[in-house]
Amino acid sequence: MAARFRAVATRAARGSFLVLGVGLAAKEIHDLFFEEAQVDQRAQLFLGLDPEVIAARTERERQLRAIMSSADRRAREVLAQGGSKAQDALLKLRGELVEEAHQVMYPSISRDELQRRRQSYGNVKWTEEAMSRIAGFSPLVEVGAGEGQWQAELRRRGADVTAFDNQSSPSRFGTDDRRRSGEVWAAGCCWCTHLQGPWHTGASCTTGGTSSSTWAKAGAA
């Protein structure tokens, strides 16, 4: 009887652990995708965008919320079916949740391709026009610099750039090399609102994540 109880308890513990793993998948979805779709007080940064663009972003946020909120329910449904395959089914569910979120945000590219793009460019890929225009205002201060990809590219082109990020958002790139090298300084970004200059965008800090990159000409009063 004792042996049977231990076996039942072990299966229950494994099930609880796997359900927790599915719950962590929901957190992974939040960290990887949610801030890119969320429409909150940062909506001030969207001024000038077409209403259709903001509506599409809002719809992506709704879909991501639905996926995250479904994680626990779907895991419990798998466990309720029981059987020796429940654990494998839960592991499969975890992957399905992340893939569903990826399809909401990036339906045209694979997750591996997305990872490579982010490692190279950050959240937004630059254009030659953008780089030329920004570099023309050197020296520069970049706020919300993420892992420093834009800073590195601007420096490669001869621009003088100091980059800051408060690093309140989890790293999406699987490396902290740029942070360790000191290229991106860990700092709050609210002070940026006091800078004035031809490239100042007036962005301010937000809770729970870094704002989009903000540029200000260094030395401007």
Describe the structure.
With 221 residues, the protein is α/β, with parallel strands linked by helices. It folds into 2 domains: 2-108, no CATH class; 123-217, no CATH class. 54% of the residues lie in helices and 7% in strands. It has 7 helices and 4 strands; from the N terminus they run H-H-H-H-H-E-H-E-H-E-E. The protein has helices spanning 2-37, 51-81, 86-105, 111-121, 128-135, 149-156, 177-181; strands spanning 140-143, 161-165, 184-186, 214-217. It has a 4-stranded mixed β-sheet. Helix 6 (149-156) links the parallel strand 1 and strand 2 (161-165). Helix 1 (2-37) runs parallel beside helix 3 and helix 2 (51-81) runs antiparallel to helix 3 (86-105). The longest helix has 36 residues, at 2-37. Mean pLDDT is 67; it is low at 1-15, 172-183 and 185-212.
Per-chain topology:
Elements: H1 2-37, H2 51-81, H3 86-105, H4 111-121, H5 128-135, E1 140-143, H6 149-156, E2 161-165, H7 177-181, E3 184-186, E4 214-217
Helix pairs in contact: 1-2, 1-3, 2-3
This entry's quaternary arrangement is: single chain
- % residues in beta strands: 5-15%
Can you list the strand order of the major beta sheet?
Answer: 3-2-1-4
End-to-end separation in angstroms reads 78 Å
**Helical segment tally?**
7
Shape: elongated
Describe the main β-sheet briefly: 4 strands, mixed
The helical percent reads 40-55%
| Number of domain modules | 2
Output the structural class: alpha/beta
Return the average pLDDT rounded to an integer: 67
The counted number of beta strands is 4
Q: SSE order, as H and E?
A: HHHHHEHEHEE
Evaluate the radius of gyration.
Answer: 22 Å
- Uncertain segments are 1-15, 172-183, 185-212
